[in-house]
Structures
1.
Amino acid sequence: MSFASIDFAIFFIIVIVVTLIIQKFFSKNIKQLFLFIASYFFYGYWDWRFCFLLLFITLTSYFSAKSHKKMIYGMGIAIPLIVLGFFKYFNFFLNSFFSITHQNHTSTLNIILPIGISFYTFQALSYVIDVHRGKIEVENNFIKLALYLSFFPQLVAGPIIKAHEFLPQLEEDRKINLENFKYGIQLITFGLFKKIVLADHIALLVDDVFFCPSAYHWTTIILAVISYSIQIYFDFSGYSDIAIGCAKCLGYDFNCNFNLPYISQNITEFWRRWHISLSTWLKEYIYIPLGGNRKGKIRQSINLLITMLLGGLWHGANWTFIFWGALNGIALCIHKRISKNKKKHFYIKTLNIFLTFTFISFTWIFFRADNFSIAWDIIKGIFTLQQGVSQPYFWSFVAIIVLVIFTICAIIKSHKNNEKEIKGYYPIVNLNTISGLTTFFTVLGLILGLAFTGEQPFVYFQF
């Protein structure tokens, strides 16, 4: 059940209506039980068998966190990782082993990758680790823990919500109210605009070029690479907006997951602005436990590289993802060594933004390509000034213009608010005014009139 579907719209309306009835006549525990059931229905809509796996991970986390024995705690960490490793990486490591040993063994298991497993596995680990660290208390109410791991807005593709961020909200009697609903419904609308008006349209050019790069002119290949940078941003930030908006409508708060990543002046800043929930998870549960920056510069570089390699592997069972993680890890290591906290002139800042975006777009080639051969064809086509089909794709230019306008508006707003750092924002309007309603319904009209009607799943569904 995709967020960009009629099925989800019907499902969400039913959830809102039933939740309103429950919160009026029953306790918060009944409300949470209903949301738990609704979340499992949402997840089982793809394949009901996945629900048993999610329940198994939940039971493992529930009982391991309650135990004071280190062995049981270790099982609470190991079992989710083993499950994730089997479903997501078994065939990858098996084929890699046979390739390294030069064996002609090509058989693999027919393993269906459960949707969202990477996300709820990380959340399960977050809960067990936070309890062990004393950051949160053990959750004795199984339904609350199960709701935390299965809450449908973030279940399939994040944001990754850490236990200490969400479980305390379940202790409160959070209810649907008009202000939260108006805020949330606008986030959902903006997210849909990003996804089905912008990202899905430019995906057509990206898919064609990355399918057969040797057929295209070098300028079209460059356009496709830039388009993919914008596609993945609008696609995933659009999903995050919808997820945050759905949670907000129901009375729950998720942190922002994207903060104008393409105005970053360096790779370190980029990873503070891109997929923030994953970046902070990797920092909190991998980088810092490895030693962070506390054991010298060489050890810091090793820790950064390990963290980014694991981050690349988390995205998918393919060497291209690992290489993508390695490129980002190496860039982070270099930046930590050469960075200086000096005030820079406007032109230097602009150049830094351009260079950072160029590097990030280059790394996205390996993220998007199905294999190294395709990635090499893309790079070769650019640097050899390859001739071929030239396609100045209209929607790519529209998406670039929209992104630039949104960024300029955010910069102006940050300066007006005297913010030291430029921050992204959700352009929430006052729906009690004529101008606010006009703006809101104009966006809705654009969605209905320009929406891509083909089958284009969210990019991060595959992770």
2.
Amino acid sequence: MAGFENPFGASYDRVAPAYAARIADELRGKPLDRLLLSRLADDTRGIGPIGDVGCGPGHVARYLSSAGAEVIASDISPGMLREAGVIAPIAPRTAADMRQLPFADHSLAGVCAFYAVIHILPDERPHVFREFHRVLRAGGVALVAFHIGDEVRRLEDWWGIAVSVDFRFLRTEVISAEMGAAGFVIEDEIERAPYSGVEHPSRRGYVYARRTP
């Protein structure tokens, strides 16, 4: 992706098979996530595709497809895209950096970014949300999920695999403000406690927003 460094793609390539093995079925234990993804699928059905940005191993794309949505899975990591081809074979896949999305203006009905913007530097995040806004049709919707907090956690060993990945915990009000500044109308801000035994024990945040005409 011209103009941007890719500091984490190689780490995700290395961890992709283990990540897919552990994460592929996690949505079964996340009822709120399923509810929000189903809402996104309902809001976009028959209108156009959803871009699953930072799709990882494709479990979210698989769920959206099963809910009747048309989905395009995109990720900066070729290794993750390979896993997505197995987990969500119905969804077309494309290499993509969310800071420079390969989608035409107004070409998507929805954008889904589950735990993807947590890897973006704070000064680049407003541009990412402008990219989400650019690719969405009028009335299109964006669903963004993230860990809640203020810290940055660096991971150098992931299930015994050497990586170098920063996880930025974020505040719901900050994400909403940045999306609002990019032109979105915020429809919902949701926070929840972690699902014990299912996921990393951090509070989770979601912003559901719509692109105005």
3.
Amino acid sequence: MRRVAVLHGGISAEREVSLHSGAQVIQALQTAGYEVVGVEVNADLSALISALTPPPDVVFNALHGRFGEDGTLQGVLDYMGIPYTHSGVLASALAMDKAAAKAVFAQAGLPVAPHRIIEITELADHHPLPPPYVVKPVNEGSSVGVHIIKAGDNRSADIVRGWSFGPAMVEQYVPGRELTVCVMEDHALFVTEIVTGEEFYDYHAKYAEGGSHHVIPAKIPEEITRRAMEISLAAHRALGCRGATRADLRFDATGNQLVLLEVNTQPGMTATSLLPEQAALAGMDFPSLCAWMVERATCRV
């Protein structure tokens, strides 16, 4: 029986999400017949290394955000020679750095919104882009720290005072519908439309019960479905991802325009998460999805 260590928790702003993901993954892998040990990760790297000594057969990486999703942990596991799920060092680092990811996407000919990187204090002086635009941390996930600035908005000074994320990305706001596509290795699954009563698909909408409603398959023109899946698979490949990813896009029906926002190399594995939902529609239950990830785990040795 293969022994799998599930890493969850971490030290990012997404710690609670990761704890939920990890708990469900542990249960699913036990159901699938693996010997499973949960490892709650904190700021003590030596404790993590001790927990992985002797090494398990595979690490299931259920961490989200910085230090778990950005290539840092992946480098540690590569050094230790332990196979792990999801993408490797380079793809993880590129995807987590929104500026680097957009440069890769643009080079691959994929549609991205106009954007620039600023020091957050610039926001207090003037609009760095014509409103409406989005302000977001360069290296966070789950919509942590994201704000939409509209014409006449007077929240800039408050945002600057409360900012703790380093440089910011400002990006032209793309109106329209929120779409997401999950990719498993070389195959895009479905297009889901995310409908929420919030201003946008923020942290609350992502994880709170009833925070959003998923329409799957999305009720959009067939050509847009095909194109969204092509863009998502191309983005997965351009970054050099492996395993499962999720691409987030916006669809502006007035201009029939699709824009790629980002690729998540560690899609959520909670009850409200999109990857398990798309996999289920494809005929793969949650234990089978987790097992699929374990069986494709690898590392750079």
